[in-house]
Design goal:
alpha/beta; 16 helices; two-stranded antiparallel sheet; 41% helix; globular; Rossmann fold
């Protein structure tokens, strides 16, 4: 079947769905303005979390780690605190050997100093544990794939930090303060850890926001979507539909209420609001690009471990980047006749708040909604129905109608 037809079939079977913790470039200015006047949702990291005080000395960083324990039978999920040292030495590897390859996803708030210091801390500790003879990389949502040569030159010491930022067009393509990311970039350069660009090029994403996935040339689409059939099946699943309705649709509605759906990521002005279909298309292309580029690196570097630094919204409830990476790995393992359990795919949310785990605009009035110090109040899983059970069905609430649950993440880490 033709690539565009395969993708179209997947969208026709998708009831409704799209959420973006990261607002595309030309809309980020609206986001920051919204934060300044007090509009809050999972779209916008809370002010209190954005500039949290944490020692800049990595040795002084302390944190609490929790394992998320989902429950599909009784729908009573819980969290269990685990020893911080055990977390960084064992749990984060999903109790596999430290030499095992895969990805550890560290879901961040882009303007949170606390989150980025934790990221640098974990990267350095994982590097020391694995030894410098073990392959390791840092995957970056913050950099678009076209700028991979710039990252290579920076890590190799061929260009300065200022040149790297200018050549990556950080101030226009990402815009979140680089100062908070500096510890990660400096660490990568000092330890010669490769920085890997994960994000879709904004020029390509803008085409999708205007015309949908069919707006991309086939040759361009193949750079991001390696297997169109599996990509389409992923968005057609009951689990993804539940994820989309809970996470993505409310985001689209909030964008629409704010009047920021008439500008693409590249700044192109639209005559009408971006359609939900195109909004969704942009979101899943974004996720697929990050998962696909991470997969490509781990495939080409057998036994290599990538630390993926991406927005919390792409990590939570599995059906963003994390589930897509798992799909790519399992497809490869099936073809190569390798066991599923060999690859690390750990999801970690850094300093999540109640608003991060609820649909956009639904948790603002709750006490402690903006604080990360109450992990027991988070929404820990998302239930989805069995195939054939409609959300409008009177049987939807029956335990027997549960198809499964999507855990918030494997682990939660809170700065202490």
């Amino acid at each position: 079947m033709h690539l565009s037809k395969i993708l179209a079939c997947g969208f026709l079977s998708l009831a409704c769905s799209c959420y973006a913790f990261e607002i595309p470039q030309s809309r980020r200015a609206f986001t920051k303005e919204a934060i300044s006047i007090g509009i809050t949702s999972t779209l916008f990291p809370s002010i209190s979390n954005a500039k949290g005080e944490l020692p800049t000395d990595k040795q002084d960083i302390s944190y609490l780690a929790y394992e998320v324990i989902p429950d599909a039978a009784k729908l009573s999920p819980s969290i269990k605190q685990i020893d911080a040292q055990k977390f960084v030495k064992q749990s984060i590897f999903q109790n596999r050997k430290k030499q095992q390859g895969g990805v550890v996803w560290l879901g961040e708030h882009h303007n949170s100093q606390k989150d980025h210091l934790l990221q640098a801390y974990f990267i350095e500790n994982l590097y020391k544990q694995r030894g410098n003879n073990q392959k390791m990389s840092i995957g970056l949502e913050q950099i678009q794939v076209q700028f991979q040569p710039v990252l290579d030159a920076f890590v190799d010491g061929k260009i300065t930090e200022e040149e790297m930022l200018e050549q990556c067009q950080w101030s226009t393509r990402w815009t979140w303060p680089y100062e908070n990311y500096r510890p990660v970039f400096q660490l990568a350069r000092d330890l010669k850890i490769p920085l890997i660009a994960l994000n879709v090029n904004s020029e390509d994403l803008a085409k999708v926001e205007v015309d949908g996935l069919q707006g991309l040339p086939i040759s361009t689409m193949k750079k991001y979507i390696k297997n169109p059939t599996l990509f389409s099946n992923f968005v057609s699943s009951t689990a993804f539909k539940a994820y989309s309705a809970y996470v993505i649709e409310p985001s689209y509605d909030l964008h629409k209420e704010m009047g920021i759906l008439r500008t693409t990521i590249a700044g192109q002005q639209l005559e009408e609001d971006m359609t939900f279909r195109n909004f969704l298309s942009g979101r899943i292309l974004w996720d697929e690009s990050m998962a696909g580029n991470a997969y490509q690196w781990t495939k080409e570097n057998e036994g290599g471990l990538m630390i993926g630094l991406i927005g919390a919204d792409h990590v939570k409830f599995n059906k963003g980047v994390v589930g897509r990476y798992q799909r790519l790995v399992e497809n490869y393992q099936q073809k190569e006749n390798k066991p599923f359990g060999d690859s690390i795919n750990t999801s970690v949310l850094l300093n999540p708040t109640l608003i991060d785990t609820r649909p956009s605009g639904t948790a603002d009035a709750y006490m402690n909604a903006y604080s990360s110090q109450f992990p027991d109040q988070l929404t820990l899983q998302l239930r989805y129905l069995k195939d054939g059970i409609l959300p409008s069905s009177p049987d939807r609430a029956l335990p027997s109608s549960t198809g499964g649950v999507l855990p918030l993440a494997d682990y939660i880490v809170v700065s202490a």
